[in-house]
């Protein structure tokens, strides 16, 4: 069964034993055996591994993993060092520069954010090569809904960053008034000019955290 290695193991134990997850597990066994699936099976839960439940300050919700070779590694929008940042990530860096004056880094690996408490969670955690949304509706959404509900229950003010339709669909799960929800268009080149550019979410999230006595995120990447 799943072993994340931190507090998420106990928090999500019931989910990992639920019927829907057991069906998802069987589906994934078949998919990984017969197709090229991203990310590597050992990277599926990296978002949870890098950001334990009690460390979460902010949540960025993506759609599903990148579906090209070598890109996805379990953190939404992130690619490992040495991989060319995809267009959506390039646009994220452009907005970060416009908002906070941070020069885009020479790589697209966002583990530095995750280690500071930014949960980089996709709506679905796996995808078939070259087929975006191919693992949609197989059970991942129930698990990621459960993760968001667990975070919603906390008495720690948390920033939820929802870019695009799939992410915004999670908004009804965030009912605790101590949290903040930031919505914008998806950073994809198809929609970034429709409300992502200019959203200034990076500074807004830090302002929210500071108002609540929480250390802000250092959005610079080394």
Task: Provide a quick synopsis of the model.
With 222 residues, this protein is an alpha/beta fold. 34% of the residues lie in helices and 11% in strands.
- As laid out across the biggest beta sheet, the strand order is 3-2-5-6
Tally of extended strands? 6
On the 0 to 100 scale, the average pLDDT is: 97
Strand content: 5-15%
Series of H and E elements = HHHEHEHHEEHEHEH
The assigned structural class equals: alpha/beta
Q: Give the C-alpha Rg.
A: 17 Å
* Share of helical residues: 25-40%
**What is the terminal-to-terminal distance?**
34 Å
The number of helical segments is 9
Could you please describe the fold and organization of this structure?
The chain has 222 residues and is an alpha/beta fold. The protein is 34% helix and 11% strand. It has 9 helices and 6 strands. The mean pLDDT is 97.
Fold blueprint:
Elements: H1 8-11, H2 13-16, H3 19-34, E1 37-38, H4 46-50, E2 58-62, H5 87-100, H6 111-114, E3 118-122, E4 127-128, H7 140-152, E5 159-163, H8 165-168, E6 180-184, H9 201-211
Parallel strand pairs: 2-3, 2-5, 5-6
Antiparallel strand pairs: 1-4
Descriptive labels:
alpha/beta
């Amino acid at each position: 069964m799943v072993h994340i290695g931190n507090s998420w193991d106990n928090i999500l134990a019931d989910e990992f034993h639920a019927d829907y997850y057991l069906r998802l597990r069987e589906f994934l066994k078949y998919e990984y055996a017969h197709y090229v699936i991203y990310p590597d099976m050992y990277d599926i839960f990296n978002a949870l591994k890098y950001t334990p439940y009690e460390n979460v300050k902010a949540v960025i919700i993506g759609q599903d993993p990148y579906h090209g070779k070598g890109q996805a590694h379990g953190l939404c929008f992130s690619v490992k060092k040495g991989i060319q940042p995809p267009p959506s990530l390039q646009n994220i860096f452009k907005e970060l520069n416009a908002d906070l004056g941070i020069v885009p880094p020479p790589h697209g690996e966002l583990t530095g954010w995750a280690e500071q408490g930014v949960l980089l969670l996709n709506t679905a955690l796996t995808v078939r090569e070259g087929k975006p949304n191919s693992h949609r509706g197989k059970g991942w959404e129930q698990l990621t809904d459960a993760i968001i509900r667990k975070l919603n229950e906390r008495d720690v003010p948390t920033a939820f960053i929802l870019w695009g339709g799939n992410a915004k669909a999670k908004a009804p799960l965030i009912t605790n008034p101590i949290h903040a929800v930031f919505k914008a268009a998806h950073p994809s080149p198809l929609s970034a000019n429709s409300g992502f550019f200019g959203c200034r979410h990076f500074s807004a999230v830090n302002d929210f955290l500071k108002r609540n006595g929480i250390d802000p995120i250092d959005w610079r990447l080394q």
